[in-house]
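Below is one such record:
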Amino acid sequence: MKPTIIGEPSVIVPGHVCASLGPVIARVLADLRRDHVTLDPDSQEAIDKLRLVGAAWANQHLPPDLPSIDTRPSAPVQWISVIETASQLGRTTRAVTDLLIRGSLRGEKVGRTWRVDATSVSARKARS
């Protein structure tokens, strides 16, 4: 099936294609997070929609004995600063940055500034 171009370069992606792209998208996103690459909001929204449509299609085409796939969009990430993270964890900002670089805390580098996933900080505090 060929993609359909509508006005501004756009594409219609069939549900079965979205479903087959799901595992690929997950791997690519994991690689991007590992490399601390941030997607622009439009790209993130497109990926979220591809995953949602793929999951919805898969739910309609699963054998009856398999559980359904959760199609609810994930909650938006609440970001906090490195300074706030350091304060919450009782660490220096350099130590927090090192945790981000190693992947021990989830975060994104936007330009020269890190932002930290607040859920990751809460989970780390709970483990301490």
In short: The longest strand covers residues 113-117.
